Amino acid sequence: MMEIRRCRKMTSKPFGVNLTLLPALQPPDYPAYARVIIEEGIRIVETAGNNPAPVIKQLKAADPPIIILHKCTTVRHALSAIKLGVDFLSIDGMECAGHVGETDITNFILLSRARQELNVPFIASGGFADGQGLAAALSLGAEGINMGTRFMCTIEAPIHQNIKESIVKAQETDTELVLRRWKNTSRMFSNKVARDAIKIERESPTGKFEEVAPYVSGKRGREVFLNGDPEHGVWTAGQVIGLIHDIPSCADLISRIEREALDTINKAKSLYVEELPESDMEGKPIQDSSANPTGEYGAVGSKVNNPQSEVWGIGKSKL
Amino acid sequence: MMEIRRCRKMTSKPFGVNLTLLPALQPPDYPAYARVIIEEGIRIVETAGNNPAPVIKQLKAADPPIIILHKCTTVRHALSAIKLGVDFLSIDGMECAGHVGETDITNFILLSRARQELNVPFIASGGFADGQGLAAALSLGAEGINMGTRFMCTIEAPIHQNIKESIVKAQETDTELVLRRWKNTSRMFSNKVARDAIKIERESPTGKFEEVAPYVSGKRGREVFLNGDPEHGVWTAGQVIGLIHDIPSCADLISRIEREALDTINKAKSLYVEELPESDMEGKPIQDSSANPTGEYGAVGSKVNNPQSEVWGIGKSKL
Question: Sorted alphabetically, which PANTHER family does this protein's record hold (chains A, B) (predicted)?
């Protein structure tokens, strides 16, 4: 409630609340969270995690019903969430930060599967930092992108400058998957704590969670963002850290992404050149590209002799 | 040499040869392979695998030098290959079939990293089956796509019909990563042999390759394609099997992909609507979108009042 009221003071614009339902020894009182969200007049909630049915039912029973964006890492869970009445989905590939799920399907596959199967709109999560990524997500069928790690690396993000700089310095290979053994796989920034946790996870003969618990403490993880010591605990980061090279303002970041996406789409569009009508050539039909006597390569879909055509590309590529 | 001559009989078009350099107890005579490739007048070679330097040197010493496409799963290896003189690269994300490498970077990240770092052109491998994927790959900076699993599922592919139908029936979750323990991780179709291999790999206290060797026999894997029994041995398949739903001819597949890619790019382009010049509105400049008195959401990059603008999207999205 405090955070909702704090956010309301900071902007006159609408905002959403995330409610992630995680397995825990002592689960938080999620119904109470949902009640506060409704009472505070929030209109959009992002749900994620296990067994969202009761919370979705509660939020949908509000008057008017709350708009629900559900985040998931499999098409199967997305289809279940649609049956529960969610309004749109956030499709989260295995490149993402935090909970990646247990199937390790990448966004190139997962977004296309979502396009093929889902009858509600979806946005793309996990792996996005720039306009080229936005253009690619739109190509695969998403309505937009969701960025977590990238926004951590902005001037406005309320985390320690050291952590922002750690992200800028990091490469795409500097993340680890921890807690797979307990089917709660999370992508974390690669530091000694995370690597020690994985070692215990792999080598412990008992497989008792208690052995790894001190290493994956959420409390110490949250302290990282305040004290600026990237080695203090485990903290989430996506593979996208490899694509992040600066710490802009949110406004600069968004307008850069917009410009990049537009340039990207225009460039892709420019690759396609209309085929000339066959009669424009020599007045006789040419059946297939094997009738092309001089082209070194047969162009994809080429029906006319075009010495500039290439092996790959669409239509008559200018590449 | 036999295969090169067989291929030459089947087409008058140029074709390339793949030379994958794998760790093996008794390595094949790769220099002899390269010699035959040169003698047969092949002009394009795709190299992949470990320690390609000697073979690349040999192929580049041919007169004229052979054009080399090198396939790799990390930016680091791509940069090394460029130093060795390769002409272009095939960037292979962890969703791919067969050798995925050991870093598990997905194509959304890896292609963007390639765009940021490489000064030679690259195509995208791993996870491609349709025109939406091609459009996304072009967006991320690739010059085109490379398809393996998708072409296995065409009328012309010289493999048993049962295997093609197994791919059509399979979901994106029906692959397994085997041989990670020996740093030779391969993505295989999920059958009992592959799952048994993984069980041994995980549970063997010795970690001796001999224990798993009978399960990952390449000979039995190749027999699968002839005898049509998907359970006979391990055989490679990418996560993209989840996107494959039919067995078209190659010509139909290619023209479908071309049409889908063009439609996809046109649709992405149509999402962007030019901002109206500010003077067209009320003759006075509007500093930022918070000055927008009526829009329920602030549009990304919006400078003018547009009640149809939305939270996500580029420019003034029509979504």
Answer: 2-NITROPROPANE DIOXYGENASE, DIOXYGENASE FAMILY OXIDOREDUCTASE, PUTATIVE (AFU_ORTHOLOGUE AFUA_5G09600)-RELATED
**Nearest-neighbour CA in chain B from A47: distance (Å):** 18
For B16-68, the pLDDT digits (tens) are 999 988 777 678 899 999 999 999 999 999 999 888 999 999 999 999 999 99
CATH, domain range B2-152 = 3.20.20.70
State in Å, rounded, how far the first CA of chain B is from the last one. Answer: 55
Residue B301 in tokens: 């990059």
- Which architecture, in CATH terms, is A2-147? Alpha-Beta Barrel (3.20)
ipTM: 0.85
**Contacts of residue B313 in chain A, CB cutoff 8 Å?**
143-144
B89 backbone dihedrals φ, ψ, rounded to 5°: -125, 150
List the one residue out of B312, B283, B319, A254 whose CA is nearest residue B304. Answer: B283
Kindly report the average pLDDT of chain B as a whole number: 87
Q: How are strands ordered across the β-sheet holding B44-49?
A: B16-21, B44-49, B67-72, B88-92, B122-125, B145-146
- Reduced 3-state DSSP string for chain A: CHHHHHHHHHCCCCCEEEEEECCCCCCCCHHHHHHHHHHCCCCEEEEEECCCHHHHHHHHCCCCCCEEEEEECCHHHHHHHHHCCCCEEEEECCCCCEECCCCCCCHHHHHHHHHHHCCCCEEEECCCCCHHHHHHHHHHCCCCEECCHHHHCCCCCCCCHHHHHHHHHCCCCCEEEECHHHCCCEEEECCHHHHHHHHHHHHCCCCCHHHHHHHHCHHHHHHHHHHCCCCCCCCECCHHHHHCCCCCCHHHHHHHHHHHHHHHHHHHHHCCCCCCCHHHCCCCCCCCHHHCCCCCCCCCCCCCCCCCCCCCCCCCCCC
> Which among B250, B265, B296, B310 is the top mutation candidate for probing chain A, defined by the most A β-carbons within 10 Å of its own β-carbon?
B265
Element (H, E) at B136: helix B131-140
| pLDDT value at residue A274 | 75
Domain boundaries, chain A: 2-147, 175-236, 274-319
Q: Which of B132, B172, B254 sits opposite A141 (nearest CB)?
A: B132
What residues in A contact B13, CB-CB < 8 Å?
290, 297-298
